[in-house]
Amino acid sequence: MNRIEERLKQVQDKGEKAFITYITAGLPDMEGCAKIIKAQEEAGLDILELGIPFSDPVADGPVIQSASYQSIQKGTNIKKVFDMVEQLRREGCELPIVFMLYFNTVLHYGLAAFAAKCAATGVDGVIIPDLPYEEQEQLQKILDKTEKAPILIQLVTPVSKQRIPMLLEKARGFVYCISSMGVTGQSADFHRDVVSYLQEVKKVSKIPVMMGFGIRTAEDVIPMKDTIDGCIVGSYLIKLMEQTNYDTDTVKEYVSTFKKELNTK
Predict the structure, then answer these.
(1) 189 is catalytic
(2) Quick count: other Cβ atoms within 10 Å of Cβ 113?
(3) CB of 170 within 8 A of CB of 192?
(4) Annotated catalytic residue: which of 49, 124, 220, 229?
(5) What does the pLDDT look like over 205-236, one tens digit per residue?
(6) Which residues on adjacent β-strands are paired with residue 154?
(7) Which of 46, 60, 124, 200 is flagged as catalytic?
(8) What average pLDDT does the chain have?
(9) Sign of the alpha-carbon torsion through 195, 45, 127, 241
(10) What does the angle CA 236 – CA 241 – CA 246 come to, to the nearest 5 degrees?
(11) 5-64 per-position pLDDT tens digit
């Protein structure tokens, strides 16, 4: 078990739902980003998705595209993000961290070098939205051979129905269920068949089922709450941080309130 699996087991043992957030690495700067991560851990966040800025983030909507561009303008690169995570781990941060990044970044770094660096630094998982299941074999083999390597998280969509058993056969960590067609940040505009789609995934999945894309508040996921094991918020939190000049108290309050409401409503 790595940190992701351990945390999700703890959450399930308590009969709770998990809360995951996405933030873009390097904003407001590297030091400020580390403070935001620590604040979320203190607020009770279960897993953090850390977006590695990329020039052409095809799965992301305007909010995350803009954040990615701003971060690149500030000089953020994967080496600096690895350094930040390594420092956080040295300081005692045990929050499970998942890198959300595009395959070109991994390829440029080198597959084996990337797997080894993730393992050495303390990166627990990776999400690569532009790497289809059929093209994951080479990377997965390298991850399998690397001690303490991150888990490759699988994504499914409302049109994945026939592929779900194949996608989840060997999946680990959690399954990321995209709640709508299109890009991130669509303000609770979920696919019309989202509940039945999530139920299909839940039937097949041996691991926790997480729902993401377009979620703002715990209220948004109440209709799906009996089916999912947790949810993911990205664009809404990024907008909130931008509006409050990356105030850590605001971030803490948002995370703790969402987590509480997710488990009481």
Answers:
(1) no
(2) 11
(3) no
(4) 49
(5) 999 999 998 899 999 999 899 999 999 999 99
(6) 175
(7) 60
(8) 93
(9) positive
(10) 165
(11) 999 999 999 999 999 999 999 999 999 999 999 999 999 999 999 999 988 767 677 899
Q: Give the position of tokens 């300081």.
A: 91
Measured CA to CA, the distance from residue 42 to residue 32 in angstroms comes to: 15
Q: Cα Rg for the chain, rounded, in angstroms?
A: 17
- Residue 232: exposed, middle, or buried by beta-carbon count in 10 A (0-12, 13-18, 19+)? buried
**189 — phi, psi (to 5°)?**
-90, 75
Instruction: Dig out the tokens for 60 from the structure.
Output: 């992301």
Q: Is 200 a catalytic residue?
A: no
Does the pTM surpass 0.90? The reply is yes
